[in-house]
From TrEMBL:
Species of the source: Strongylocentrotus purpuratus
SUPFAM superfamilies registered for this protein in UniProt: RNI-like
InterPro entries to which the protein is assigned, alphabetical: LRR_dom_sf
Protein name, UniProt field: Uncharacterized protein
The organism's place on the tree of life at top rank: Eukaryota
Gene3D superfamilies given in the database record: Ribonuclease Inhibitor (3.80.10.10)
Amino acid sequence: MTHLKDLTLRGQYHDDFYSTSSSMASSSKIETLEIYSADLPERHLSESHFSERHLSERPSASRDLAQFICKMTHLKNLTIKGPYHDDFYLTASSMVSSAKIETLKFLLDLFESRSASRALVQFICKMTHLKKLTLHGQYHDALYSTVSSMALSVKIENLDIDSVDLNERPFASRDLAQFICKMTHLKNLTLGGQYHYAFYSTSSLKASSAKIETLEIYSADLIERPLASRDLAQFICKMTHLKNLTLKSQYHDDFYSTSSSMASSAKSCNTSPTLTELTVEDDTLEGWQDCGSVFDNVKRVTIQVRSTINCDVIQRIHLPGATELTIQADVYAPQPAGFHEEPTSLPNALLMISPQLVKVTFSDLDIGNSNMELILQTFRSPHNLKHLKIIRFIRCGSDEGVDDVILACNKDQVMEVEVERGKPRRLLFD
């Protein structure tokens, strides 16, 4: 198939499939490949029954699959999930110089395999075209120590890490932090999972060398960890290139007190001088406290809502310089969020966030015609948001029944109302 660009492989195949694929790989025009070697049985060509042997027990098939991947000259995006024999990683590492892969995603369990973990790192770090790496799952300590030692050689710009098993592994956590801070090309970092204190302390110590511009953090256990929360705050405040920050879940009080003290200390460096965009979950705002002047340079703020829009919650964050606010559905929300109460108190809540707001956007929320009318009528009445010029509604469940109010607002020239009609999208499910 000379026009095939995207291919997804699920399940298991006979060894002949992998050997033939390897021999013909150079003629392939595939650019995006997803391989899911899950717990699906393999049917041998000469057998009428199912065999339970998977690729983790099949060295030849695993080796040929690695050759198939590395020989494809047009392959740019690769996703790999499932169990494979160690020969897959060793072969991939030995042939990586021929790969043109730019985006790589792994979801693997290599916790007990030292050699495979080490070979996987060499495969990753030797790829000269790799720009984006997603690494989820469990890995041996050898992966983290090796990747730390090779960090300076990688050209990765986007890194997504999610590991649930590092909270009791100090050396692996330390080495991961070193890897992150050593990478000279890393611009965007997404950090999920749970980590040992050594990760946060090392990150804090080496933060000034990081070139990260966009950081997203989610860790469910920090609310009960004062030292880790303190060092995370230091890590954020010390990064001199950070422009865009996303905070999810909740944090210990020491996160906020450390942020505040670093911002107010005359001896400290200029904390977060480049940070202009901030995204927070409403769950994060439940425990939000004053952070001093850390976020004073933020111009654009986004609040992600899981279930209901509660004005008492969203007004807990104070960003005196913010000019743009977006309230949108959380990506994991099973249903679009609506208002906890009538939105008549919205102007006062937004004033608490920032008196400098110029533009407010509602996106993928369950607002509907009646609440949209209330919001617009409220903002047509006198309020203290003197700079507010634009209100946008994107897929908030309205229809033409609210057109008269929109026209009246635009005619008043007090503010501009923009509406993109449609039902709210469940971002992760639709």
